[in-house]
Amino acid sequence: MTSPSQPPQSPTAFDAPPPGCPAHALGPDGLRRLYGPEADADIAGVYEKLRAEYGPVAPALIHEDVPMWAVLGHTENLQMVSTTSLFNRDSRNWSAVKDGTAGPTHPLAPVFTWQPMCAMEEGAEHLRLRSPVTAAVETVEHRELRRSINRATQEIINRFSERGTCEVVSEFAEHLPMMVMLEMLGAPEAYSERIVQATRDLLKGGESAIACNEYLMGILMDLAVRRRAAPLEDDFTSTLITSPSALTDDEVAQTLRLILIATYEGSANLIANVLRVVLTDPRFRARLNGGQMTVPEAVEQSLWDEPPFSANVGYFAKADTELGGQRIRAGDGLIFGIQPGNADPRVRPEPGAHMMGNRSHLAFGGGPHECPGQDIGRAVAEIGVDAFLMRLPDAELEVSETELRWTSTIMGRHLVELPVDFTPRPPQDVKSQPGQLPSQRPEWKITSDPSDLSTTPPQATMPPAAPAAPVAPDPAVRPPRPYVHPNSQGSAELGLWQRFLRWWRGE
Fold first, then answer.
1. Which one of 30, 291, 379, 484 has the fewest beta carbons within 10 angstroms of its own beta carbon?
2. Where do the H-state alpha helices sit in 281-403?
3. Residue range 106-122: mean pLDDT, rounded
4. C-alpha angle 260/263/264, rounded to 5°?
């Protein structure tokens, strides 16, 4: 079959497929492309076409028409990531790398090229590289992390609160995770618009991805060198460096890159996706306002419906085997299909079915490479969404829902813009709590699940807010549509349970 990039073999131009024709999405041997116009517009739709044609495992093409298996079934994905005797993440075993088809200049090379980090190793070497990450994650004090997220949220919202309008994706969702993660890793001075955009471009692939990767690695290598010269106590990066695993500077920098990108992308997309649903789905918002759903539950539902990473490129077969009815040969590359796995009709017979309480989604991977920092990513998204809704309770979408646009790649589906307007508000002290102006202390309750803590909370109570003087309503001003925290009782005093929740959240 003629590739869309080649001229038609017919002597007349009328034989060329018209724009929008499905033939444009097909490559050599009639295989579907997971890149290009159709995939960029609706990667989930392409996966469903593959599922209908081939079942849970399907042949497909990534950039430059390199063949890979797309694993679409929930069970098959878990089988692949858990069976280390047959599949691993070392692309040096990939036939396309060995023969140069997927060389160092491939658009996705920064994603699949083997690097000395735990996500691409196995066995004893995986344990050597993974154990420092686990130890470093354990140094994160969750109360202080929550304070950091709240502080960053207030600082970012202060930039646009007086305008009465903002673009949620580029002004909030993409900045909050980067600010929090760089502070956690020990490089808050590196935070800037440039590093945010470089990380986003790196994940898109394409010509700029390699240069963006080099820029990011330069920052992280500098951090590794500085911390080795002067390690800090209970510091994330210092813990990596001083671990018994004796990581090199390059190994430390690559590990930091993995953690930063995974948490950044996951949290940024989660924040944007959850806020989009709140702003466009009255029933979803009503469940939050009415207490039928907490913000953490809303985040978990989003991890099912719109996982931050659609897929992971990739896994590689170590031996001839069979998966999902397909014959897989040693050296074949496979795509870990997170989004299509979550949408597997054998797991979710009804598309979009509510999955409250079910955490068996694939958003954080599985097997030995399951994300060790997933709770950090969850915290950034949960607290960020919660604080945004408390600070701007009357935020509404500026445009019609039909005008919203996404960009899709093999790696993920990204909301381009989410413009909102709200009642202009003065900047807030970054040390105060979400939704509190210096002269006010309104009641609000935390939605997170405190079941994993056993420490006795402090007994101090918050004074009730002073009554405000009546003000005549301005007919030109839209009345706010407040976000109400679940289980709100409207009491002037907080009970023991509410004080416990506030303490646990780091307030």
1. 30
2. 282-290, 295-305, 338-342, 374-391
3. 87
4. 75
